[in-house]
Write a structure and sequence with these properties.
This protein has a domain of 37 residues. The protein is 53% helix and 0% strand. It has 3 helices and no strands. Helix 1 crosses helix 2.
Length: 64
């Protein structure tokens, strides 16, 4: 039977933020500022579409 985790166990290390998440975190406020009347969902869609051609996208770096 496995031993229950004790309170003294350290929490797991956080994973690194993906390039996509970094891009979205940076660009979503920019898109919302440029288009204040957009809903969050529509702004997120536009940001996700711009990721396809973004230089931060690792898939674009490989083909360059």
């Amino acid at each position: 039977m496995p031993k229950a985790a004790s309170k003294e166990d350290k929490p797991a290390a956080k994973r690194a933020v993906s390039p996509y998440n970094e891009y979205m975190k940076k660009m979503l406020p920019v898109i919302k500022q440029q288009n204040p009347n957009l809903s969050h969902q529509e702004a997120f869609k536009r940001c996700a579409e711009s990721w396809k051609d973004a230089p931060e996208n690792p898939k674009n770096k490989a083909s360059a």
